[in-house]
């Protein structure tokens, strides 16, 4: 066991028993079709996190004090199916310990396992899929566990809402629910897309965020960059609103494909992760945006209000 902690936080905030948050690295890159390198994502993300300020100005909080446990890395890569099953079981293990579980990839196929675990543990789950790509193929290159199929299963058995989409195959139209899809080219002119998307969500929300949803001008280090993506503050405003109005039960962030020359994407990913935790556990009700939010502990209790008992699973 290494004594490495998330972001170099003190040991007292990094032990499992003291931690509300669990972070599971999954450096899997077995099915990517173009640029390889998402296997190096978790390492680059963790390195950038160590060089980040741990006080969040906006929420006036230090969310690491809720405790963030860096779990063992999921290394299973003998097949896409075996990897998905290992992710599924690992995530479920920590959800059942009543932790707020977060996962950092790796390519997007890992989310088939993360979503399966959350969907088994929480009632009426909404999956908020934030991505440039629709990822709705039932099967691709001989497997249902390809990154191009990341949310097909979720489209069949959860309330799937897709945001930022700007690349897909015609065949995916047969699976896609247009009423629950927010295309990037429409979001540009629809000032109500945030409210519209939130109105479609049930209370329990799992977020799967593919970093290629961001515009390549602010996040170039990803396997399949697409022009016309989201920018930093509009994304944060949306996420903040979702965390405020819904019971976000966990999230994953995928497809960081780092390179040696430009580290800015690694830092964006690190900051994004920390921002999402800060929104989840925001305690300071002096901040206007959070005046309706209970303190962090109540938020977490609420998190499990709709938790299925293990016997129900
Ligand atoms: Mn994508």
Ranges with pLDDT <50 over ≥5 residues?
284-299
Mean pLDDT: 91
The largest sheet is:
8 strands, parallel
Q: How many domains make up the coordinates?
A: 1
Order of helices and strands: EHEHEHEHEEHHEHEHH
Q: CATH class, please?
A: Alpha Beta
- CATH architecture type: 3-Layer(aba) Sandwich
Helicity, as a percent range: 25-40%
Q: Within the CATH hierarchy, at the fold level, what is the topology?
A: Arginase, Chain A
Integer-rounded radius of gyration: 18 Å
* Tally of alpha and pi helices: 9
Task: Report how far apart the termini are.
Answer: 32 Å
Bound molecules: manganese (II) ion
Q: For the largest beta sheet, what order do the strands appear in spatially?
A: 2-1-3-8-7-4-5-6
Beta-strand proportion: 5-15%
Shape: globular
GO molecular function, one term: agmatinase activity
EC number: 3.5.3.11
Keywords: Hydrolase, Manganese, Metal-binding
Pfam family, one: Arginase
Describe this structure in words.
Mn(2+) binds at residues 108, 131, 133, 135, 210, 212. The structure is a single chain. With 313 residues, the chain is an alpha/beta fold. The chain is globular and about 50 Å long. The chain has an eight-stranded parallel β-sheet with strand order 2-1-3-8-7-4-5-6, with helices on both faces. It contains nine helices and eight strands. It binds manganese (II) ion.
In short:
This protein is of the alpha/beta class. The protein has 9 helices and 8 strands.
Throw out a few tags for this protein.
313 residues; alpha/beta; Arginase, Chain A; eight-stranded parallel β-sheet; 9 helices; 8 strands; binds manganese (II) ion; manganese; EC 3.5.3.11; metal-binding; agmatinase activity; Ureohydrolase_Mn_BS
């Amino acid at each position: 066991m290494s004594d490495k902690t998330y972001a170099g936080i003190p040991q007292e905030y990094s032990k499992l028993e003291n931690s509300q948050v669990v972070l599971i690295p999954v450096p899997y890159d077995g099915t990517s079709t173009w640029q390889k390198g998402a296997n190096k994502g978790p390492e680059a993300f963790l390195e950038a996190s160590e060089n980040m300020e741990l006080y969040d100005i906006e929420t006036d909080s230090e969310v690491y004090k809720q405790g963030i446990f860096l779990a063992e890395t999921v290394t299973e890569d003998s097949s896409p199916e075996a990897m998905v099953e290992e992710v599924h079981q690992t995530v479920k293990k920590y959800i059942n310990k009543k932790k707020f579980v977060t996962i950092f990839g790796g390519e997007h196929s890992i989310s088939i396992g993360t979503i399966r675990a959350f969907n088994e543990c929480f009632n009426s789950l909404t999956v908020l899929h934030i991505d440039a790509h629709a990822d709705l193929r039932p099967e691709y290159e001989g497997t249902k566990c390809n990154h191009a199929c990341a949310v097909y299963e979720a489209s069949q058995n959860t309330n799937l809402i897709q945001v930022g989409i700007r690349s897909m195959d015609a065949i995916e139209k047969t699976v896609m629910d247009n009423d629950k899809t927010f295309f990037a080219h429409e979001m540009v002119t629809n000032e109500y897309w945030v409210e519209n998307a939130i109105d479609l969500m049930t209370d329990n929300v799992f977020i799967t965020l593919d970093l290629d949803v961001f515009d390549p001008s602010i996040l170039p280090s990803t396997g399949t960059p697409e022009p016309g993506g989201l920018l930093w503050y509009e994304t944060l405003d949306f996420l903040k609103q979702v965390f405020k109005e819904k019971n976000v039960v966990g999230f994953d962030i995928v497809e960081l494909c780092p390179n040696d020359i430009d580290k800015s994407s690694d830092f964006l990913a690190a900051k994004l992760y920390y921002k999402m935790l800060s929104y989840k556990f925001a305690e300071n009700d002096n901040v206007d945006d959070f005046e309706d939010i209970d303190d962090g502990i109540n938020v977490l209790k609420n998190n499990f209000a709709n938790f299925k008992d293990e016997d129900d699973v």
